[in-house]
Write a structure and sequence with these properties.
The structure holds two protein chains of two kinds.
Chain A lengths: L3 E4 L2 E4 L5 E7 L5 E7 L6 E6 L6 E2 L6 E3 L9 E3 L8 E8 L6 E3 L3 E5 L1
Chain B lengths: L2 E3 L3 E5 L4 E8 L6 E6 L6 E6 L3 E5 L2 E6 L4 E6 L8 E8 L5 E3 L3 E6 L1
Parallel strand pairs in B: 2-11
Antiparallel strand pairs in B: 1-3, 3-8, 4-5, 4-9, 6-7, 7-8, 9-10, 9-11
The chains are: A mainly beta, B mainly beta.
Chain lengths: 112, 109
């Protein structure tokens, strides 16, 4: 692994289903983030974690949950997917020295 | 509220120079970032400004004026591969990034 990986690359999901998007980084960054990106809008922060064992809510947290059991992994769960959660989801991590965020390749999620 | 404004789309010619502007109103300021995002790909870091002035990095330069809430990204000697969206983001007082919607740059031969 080099950098940040996300899985799956894309997914079509029926409304009401539960879904977990996976994110793993090997850069030993303390902070990690989940964003959604929708056409015409800026990246919007869903949840973040400043360090393993802690999480916080971003701008659009409703309908999503996260956990941070260790430094490397930061999964995002949709408990009961709805069509408005159709989006591209990016995971990112940041170096505490520079605050620069580095992004994974993204997951394209379609909820029908 | 917090707001980042940048043009939706710009067109420029290969070999030319283009300036992409960004204005911001945020609760606090802890730096401004520019990212490049090619279609279907992840954003990649371009530059960071926290003090007023110009930061130069090869063909790309970024300028910041904190008193005016203004930044620009300057791209010189444009190449076709520079066709992408350019995202401006400001780190607020809570050290969260507030993102603009991005400027789609189209390069024509």
């Amino acid at each position: 692994i080099a950098g940040i990986t996300q899985a799956p690359t894309s997914q079509i999901l029926a409304a009401g289903r539960r879904m977990t998007l996976r994110c793993t980084q090997d850069m030993r960054h303390n902070a990690m983030y989940w964003y959604r990106q929708d056409l015409g809008l800026g990246l919007r922060l869903i949840h973040y974690s400043n360090t393993a064992g802690t999480t916080g809510k971003g701008e659009v947290p409703d309908g999503y949950s996260v956990s941070r059991a260790n430094t490397d992994d930061f999964p995002l769960t949709l408990a009961s997917a709805v069509p408005s959660q159709t989006s591209v989801y990016f995971c990112a991590s940041s170096d505490s020295n520079t605050d620069t965020q580095y992004f994974g390749p993204g997951t394209r999620l379609t909820v029908l | 509220g917090q707001n980042i404004d940048q043009p939706t789309e710009m067109t420029a010619t290969e070999g030319a120079i283009v300036q992409i502007n960004c204005t911001y109103q945020t609760s606090g300021f802890n730096g401004l970032f520019w990212y490049q995002q090619h279609a279907g790909e992840a954003p990649t870091f371009l530059s960071y400004n926290v003090l007023d002035g110009l930061e130069e990095k090869g063909r790309f330069s970024s300028f910041l004026s904190r008193s005016k809430g203004y930044s620009y990204l300057l791209l010189k000697e444009l190449q076709m591969k520079d066709s992408a969206s350019y995202l401006c983001a400001v780190m607020d007082s809570n050290y969260q990034l507030i993102w603009g919607a991005g400027t789609k740059l189209i390069i024509k031969p």
